[in-house]
Amino acid sequence: MDAFTKPIGGTATTAVASFTRPTQEEAEAAVRTLLAWAGDDPTREGLLETPGRVTRAFGEFFAGYTQNPKAILSKTFKEVGGYDDIVLVKDIPFSSHCEHHMVPFVGKAHIAYLPHDGVVGLSKLARLVDVFARRLQTQENLTAQIIDAINENLGPRGAAVMLEAEHMCMSMRGVRAHGATTVTHRFTGVFAEDRVEQDRFFAMIKR
Ligand SMILES: Nc1nc2c(ncn2[C@@H]2O[C@H](COP(=O)(O)OP(=O)(O)OP(=O)(O)O)[C@@H](O)[C@H]2O)c(=O)[nH]1
Ligand SMILES: [Zn+2]
After folding, report:
1. Which residues does the chain have with pLDDT short of 70?
2. CA 36, CA 40: separation in Å to the nearest integer?
3. Nearest bound ligand to CA 169?
4. Active site residues
5. CB-hemisphere CA count at 13 Å for 4?
6. Both ends of the chain: CA-CA distance in Å?
7. Any residues with Cβ below 6 Å from ligand 1, and which?
8. Could you tell me the residue ranges of all domains in the chain?
9. CATH architecture of 77-206
10. Residue 180: helix, strand or coil by DSSP?
């Protein structure tokens, strides 16, 4: 039996959870059960390899449970010519899965921070989004986890995170509100205290 890891609250990285991870065979059997439940024949030729493919796909969708956000943000650079203004990486594409329906939600993240003691590599912000997106999520929790990780690991003077996404559980099923976009944002530090900084963030995103 394989001890499973899962995030515990906030931005916690990995920890041994109180449940055990099913085997590959058990996971594939579960997929066959769902195929039959949906009304198809798991033994027909076209579906024979599907359980293996689905578990491999799940391995990619949910790879974030074993990835460590702290490691991603561990390297910073101080030689930036004294630059201490907003660093914004916008339009970071992400796809995640809602924890209610296990259906994708897909969108863009915008991340800004005001450096305090060095900057982080730009790609690391996109990697950070990816780690948390590759877990079962709500958009609110994803927003909070991203900004908490930035604050905990970079200690910036301020941080701002905005996510815009379409939830397939709202468009492909249920209310079928195609094209509806959910927007979440969170500000901390200077961005939370100063409306001028918030407005600069919004203006830079729109530009
Ligand atoms: N706040 C929030 N809600 C979400 C998110 N993703 C999905 N949901 C919502 O989670 C809710 C679950 O509601 P339930 O009534 O328990 O489930 P349901 O019967 O499938 O709901 P419907 O989608 O309205 O058919 C739905 O309103 C979804 O739109 C998210 O990231 N954040
Ligand atoms: Zn959902």
Report:
1. 1-17
2. 5
3. 2
4. 98-101, 139, 167, 169
5. 14
6. 52
7. 98, 100, 138-140, 167, 169-170, 174-175
8. 2-61, 77-206
9. 2-Layer Sandwich (3.30)
10. coil
Query: What pLDDT was estimated at residue 15?
Result: 46
What is the pLDDT, as a whole number, of residue 16? 53
Q: CB of 142 within 8 A of CB of 96?
A: yes
Residue identified by tokens 């604050």 is 151
Q: Which fold does the domain 2-61 belong to in CATH?
A: GTP Cyclohydrolase I; Chain A, domain 1 (1.10.286)
Among 205, 122, 134, smallest CA distance to 163 is for 205
Sorted by sequence, the CB contacts under 8 Å of residue 160 that are 6+ apart come out as: 110, 111, 112, 113, 147, 185, 186, 187, 188, 191, 197, 198, 201
User: Given the structure tokens 């994708």, which residue do they identify?
Assistant: 104
Residue 129: burial class (beta carbons within 10 Å; 0-12, 13-18, 19+): buried
The H or E element that residue 95 is part of is strand 87-98
d(CA 2, CA 10): 24
From residue 140, give the alpha-carbon distance in Å to each of 37, 44, 100: 32, 41, 13
